[in-house]
């Protein structure tokens, strides 16, 4: 039987969003972006002092959480206008997705929920992955910092996970070599490994972090993870002031649960990043708290850290709004609205840590709207001396 090969191709408006069996070069398969970027930094959209930001509510709890972000921004007076684009999860067409990507390219910045792909067609790709690939958002960052007032399995955690976001196990290159045998390609490139490692060490330097841990499985995947490990070690040598070590992913998960305080900044490939993010989120309060940031050379997309859909709790007024509000705070910081970001951040901390207004996922009995109302109350009564 002839082998079926599914590969990525550029998105085209009006076309069904499927993988295609085209003859792309190895370089095109692995990269959407050139190794060396010559373009100038693309400015974010700013009209009359207000930033335009793309909002992709996504599925499940996404739309209700975005409504809370809008409410909070209104009371905070945040100078941001949202361009909302809904992506229909029930269709295989790519038009919504193309509009979303075009909007993010125009505005430079987006906030998003998780976008479901309901199609069971194996050739229809994840829209979340497509957005990251099309915008070359090669870095995902999760600041995993415990909230003192939240009851959880581990306290005083302060770990930064830096994850390769566009290749690895998410390359979406699978083929059936012979009937009943499917091969899935894990793509690791030196250029992307280098970008991740450099970004991580630069981040550690800028933020006074002491140690970077490289997470891998190079004992088994000697070539792919071996390249990631070798490249990261090479970059580490350029930063002698920052300690570095490496750890096999299996041991890393155990260490995270038993002794997480040994970690400071962690770097890893794509799937390990998702797993480790979920482990740490579980340790410090679950999917409803932490936000995640996706960066490329030109665009930035902000979202809840574990990227869940939360479909089972949608519409019940019990979803924790904090992860999405934290994503909106990250976005304000990125846009340079530090005072608005601090005001919302402080209101969040007061609400969940001092007032103990918490949703059921944190052990509380309050609704999503109770939490948001209290955040708004704190914002309204905050001392705006700036
Ligand atoms: P899910 O959406 O079922 O969420 C996992 C658990 O976290 C559920 O118990 C949910 O109620 C809870 N949860 C999530 N957000 C919450 C919030 N704001 N407040 C309170 N509880 C919250 O996640 P699952 O099963 O992992 O995935 C569902 C969809 O999300 C799938 O389409 C999957 O592909 C996608 N997804 C999940 C990722 C993950 O890391 N878990 C990563 C990327 C995509």
TrEMBL record:
Highest taxon above the source species: Eukaryota
UniProt keyword annotations, A-Z: Transit peptide, Tricarboxylic acid cycle
SUPFAM superfamilies assigned: Isocitrate/Isopropylmalate dehydrogenase-like (SSF53659)
Classification via InterPro entries: Isocitrate_DH_NAD, IsoPropMal-DH-like_dom
Residues in Isopropylmalate dehydrogenase-like domain copies: 52-375
Protein family (similarity comment): Belongs to the isocitrate and isopropylmalate dehydrogenases family.
PANTHER family in alphabetical order: DECARBOXYLATING DEHYDROGENASES-ISOCITRATE, ISOPROPYLMALATE, TARTRATE (PTHR11835), ISOCITRATE DEHYDROGENASE [NAD] SUBUNIT, MITOCHONDRIAL (PTHR11835:SF60)
Name used for this protein in its record: Isocitrate dehydrogenase [NAD] subunit gamma, mitochondrial-like isoform X1
Organism: Nicrophorus vespilloides
Origin organism lineage: Eukaryota, Metazoa, Ecdysozoa, Arthropoda, Hexapoda
């Amino acid at each position: 039987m002839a082998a079926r090969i599914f590969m990525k191709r550029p998105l085209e408006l009006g076309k069904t969003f499927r993988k295609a069996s085209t003859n792309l070069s190895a370089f095109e398969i692995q990269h959407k972006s050139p190794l060396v970027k010559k373009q100038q930094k693309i400015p974010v959209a700013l009209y009359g002092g207000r930033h335009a930001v793309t909002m992709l509510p996504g599925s499940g709890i996404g739309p209700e959480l975005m409504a809370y972000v809008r409410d909070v921004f209104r009371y905070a007076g945040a100078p941001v206008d949202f361009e909302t684009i809904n992506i229909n999860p029930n269709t295989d067409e790519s038009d919504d997705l193309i509009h979303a990507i075009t909007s993010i390219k125009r505005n430079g910045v987006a906030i998003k929920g998780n976008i479901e792909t309901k199609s069971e067609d194996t050739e229809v790709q994840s829209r979340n992955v497509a957005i990251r690939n099309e915008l070359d958002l090669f870095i995902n960052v999760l600041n995993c910092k415990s909230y003192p007032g939240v009851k959880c399995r581990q306290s005083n955690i302060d770990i930064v996970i830096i994850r390769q976001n566009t290749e690895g196990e998410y390359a979406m290159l699978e083929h059936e070599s012979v009937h009943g045998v499917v091969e899935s390609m894990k793509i690791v490139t030196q250029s992307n490994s280098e970008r991740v490692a450099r970004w991580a060490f630069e981040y550690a330097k800028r933020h006074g972090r002491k140690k970077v841990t490289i997470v891998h499985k190079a004992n088994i995947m000697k070539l792919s993870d071996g390249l990631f490990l070798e490249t990261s070690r090479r970059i580490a040598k350029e930063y002698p002031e920052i300690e570095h070590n490496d750890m096999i992913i299996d041991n890393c998960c155990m260490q995270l649960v038993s002794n997480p305080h040994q970690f400071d900044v962690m770097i890893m490939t794509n799937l390990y990043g998702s797993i480790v993010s979920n482990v740490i989120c579980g340790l410090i309060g679950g999917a409803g708290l932490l936000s995640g940031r996706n960066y490329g050379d030109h665009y930035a997309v902000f979202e809840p850290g574990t990227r869940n859909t939360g479909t089972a709790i949608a519409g019940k007024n019990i979803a924790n709004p904090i992860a999405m509000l934290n994503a909106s705070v990250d976005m304000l910081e990125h846009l340079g609205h530090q005072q608005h970001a601090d005001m919302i951040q402080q209101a969040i901390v007061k609400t969940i840590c001092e007032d103990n207004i918490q949703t059921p996922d944190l052990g509380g009995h309050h609704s999503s709207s109770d939490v948001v109302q209290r955040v708004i109350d704190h914002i309204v009564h905050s001392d705006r001396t700036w």
